[in-house]
Amino acid sequence: MINHFGIAVKDVEKSVKFYQAALAAFGYKIHHAWEKGANFTDGISHDPYGDFEVHQGEPHPFHFAFQAKTNQEVDAWYAEAMANGGTDNGAPGYRMDYRENYYAAFIVDPDGYRIEAVCHNGQPHGIENL
Predict the structure, then answer these.
(1) Taking the model in full, what pTM does it have?
(2) Looking at residue 90, which CATH number applies to its domain?
(3) Residue 32 belongs to domain spanning
(4) pLDDT digits over 61-104, tens only?
């Protein structure tokens, strides 16, 4: 996981719901919430304010990736993100054109941010994922 970062969102309530569901795959929960935002943490962060924040503001799309421990976490993240307002930008699978054992999924969140979950743990892949 990235140490921490924050993003501005158009609809705080919608985005908090989206991230609360999608980040549950990694064990993340809301650490602190306020009227115009929320911090999320996995409980082992060294940042006392949480690793990730959403707050009210005008979105500025960019790409960022969450680190997953297993391919199954990537799959769970993708499923929850899609079920809670995400748009497909690349289903879970190996990206051999990136590098060997690069297992990732890509979505666009409700505010247009391009988000990836990736696992580099060297799990073997089958021919169906090439």
Answers:
(1) 0.72
(2) 3.10.180.10
(3) 5-129
(4) 677 889 898 999 999 999 999 999 999 999 999 998 877 888 99
